[in-house]
Amino acid sequence: MQKKRRVSTDLRYYILMIAPTIIIYLLLMVVLAKTIRLSFFQWNGLGEETFVGIDNFIRLFQDSRFLFSLRNIFIFIIATIVIQVGSGVILAYLLTEIKVRWNSFFKSVIFLPVVISNVAVSLYFVKFFDYENGLLNYLLVSVGLDKVNLLGSGPNTIYYAILPQTWQYIGLMFIIAYTGFSTVPKSYIEASIIDGLNSFQRLIHMYIPISWSSLSSCFIIALVGPLKAFEHLWILTERGGADQLSHVPATLMYYLGFSNYEYGYGSAIAVLICILALLLVILFKWLTDNKFKQEGDA
Amino acid sequence: MIGKKIKWPSTIAFIILLIFASINLFPFFNLLLNSFRYHSEIVRLPLAFDRFTLGNYVTAQEHANLFRGLFNGIYISFCTIIVLMLLSTMNSYALTFIDNKYTNLIVIFLTFGYFIPPASLIINTFLTLRNLSLLNTYTGIILVFVALYIPISMILLMGHMKTIPRAIIESAKIDGANHYITCWKIILPLTKPMLVTLTILMLLWTYRDYMWPLILMARPEKRTIAVSLSMFVSDRQDDLGVMSAAVMVSLIPIMGTYIILKDKIMAGMAAGSVKG
User: Fold this and answer.
1) Cβ neighbourhood burial of B14 (10 Å; 0-12, 13-18, 19+)
2) Do A116 and B254 touch (CB under 8 A)?
């Protein structure tokens, strides 16, 4: 009798303590369920919802805007991995491996753009790339080159529009890599110096494998980050550019939902974004798990 | 000879870092200077500094009501943080320290939200809040933010709480403390470092957020600072001085926080990104 009461008290506390969280979290799940449902409908937000089956998805793969947004996200992911992860790792490596002056100053300056709001950065670069009064064109003209209109160059706009975000989050990759690198024991490094490894070999054979668990999250951020990206491209390309070819899926979805009131069609993109994000993470985990198990569990 | 061998790499590294640091700092100084200059002069000579004016700040405030935006942004962040901390501490406590056969299932269910890109939910969140008449209300956006960040705060807090020895809970129980008292009086102080990290993450993520306030708080008096700023692009407000002043105002709270707490912020962002 005594024992039974005890258990039920525990259970009562358990339910009371997790219930508020679950209830608010259900909002998210309801929204997700509605998104999946609405992706099979055509709806402009006011009239009747018409069930169209998978027509929305078929239409998407015939829509040049969507196909371009897939191309753009691919470019974006590649640029993020090469520029962002690349510079992050190199900077982290420079600051860990080589003792330079002003160490903590460099650390905080490299990280600085990460805390600045995306809108502020985008706004600065809109004006920086501006055709009429932009600083970039001023510099080009003053060294005797022609003016360029980078943010209005049709399908090529995306190459320049992704630069601000790529630059801004180098600091995040840097700090993750730096934290990872600083877990490498000093004794390993001393041993490798005695064994005659040069700095580059040390990066490849020691720093990267030992701190792989944190570096792998750099790659996951680089893979999934562009799918979440919205602010920079929305502002820099002025809602997808005049020809609507500079979208990434998230901005295209926003455009379809809130400028064209095609809620069902937009929801179909939302579902595809979720699937794509999940696939990329699973693919990455699968690839890296296999590779590192073969090398004997670093 | 040896001295030379050691010095070269560090000099090169120093130069690379210096170049990178100046790329990072340049926009900031550029904006700071421009915010005190007249538009016509910025256009004519972008990199000079001539006549000083404070008028840009006045115009920016009149054009976009920046102080209202600052207040809204900070208010929403603070409410989100307080609600989220209260809920998540209790929730993680219960999931970590009270035995229940469904705990694993609940943890998986709550973690699932972490893998949904928030951008994909935007249309239907808008429609749902419209049905609940929560558009343009603080309650609506705070609910959305709390719901969005429940998974990550649970992951981080449970990770931290698992390192606390269970013997502490047992002894509290023997001393007659119920679960509420144990949670608030014993576990809360012990999880303080992680709560600080979470607070910083939430402050950065919610204060700087643009997408959610843009659709959920569209009315001018409910705009957050991020949304007010973007008005300088869409309103064709072409005065570079005014725009720079507006950006500077939006940077003040975040830069202030960064200068005071920079090590904590860096560690927090690293931890927050790695755990996922």
Assistant:
1) middle
2) yes
Shortest distance, CA A204 to any CA of chain B (angstroms): 18
Q: pLDDT tens digits, residue range B78-88?
A: 999 999 999 99
Residues of A in contact with B238 (CB under 8 A): 133
Pull the structure tokens for residue B245: 């002043």
Residue keyed to tokens 């937009």:
A266
Here the contacts of A182-189 (C-beta below 8 Å, separation 24 or greater) are: A182/A96, A183/A210, A183/A211, A183/A214, A184/A96, A184/A210, A184/A211
Please write the tens of the pLDDT for every residue from B135-167.
999 999 999 999 999 999 999 999 899 999 999
pLDDT band at B4 (very low <50, low <70, confident <90, very high): very low
Which residues of chain B make contact with A277, given a CB cutoff of 8 A?
115-117
The C-alpha atoms of residue A195 and residue B37 are separated, in whole angstroms, by 59
Closest CA to A213 of A180, A183, A188: A180
In DSSP terms, A42 is beta-bridged to A50
Question: Residue A156 has what pLDDT?
Answer: 86
- The predicted complex's ipTM stands at 0.87
Is residue B113 within 8 Å of B150, Cβ to Cβ?
yes
B17 neighbourhood in chain A, CB within 8 Å: 91, 94-95, 100, 102, 106, 110
Backbone region of residue B65 per phi and psi (left: phi > 0; alpha: psi in -120 to 50; beta: other values): left
Q: Inform me whether the pLDDT recorded for A298 exceeds 70.
A: no
pTM confidence score: 0.89
B117, pLDDT greater than 60: yes
- Residues B99 and B173: beta-carbon distance below 8 Å: no
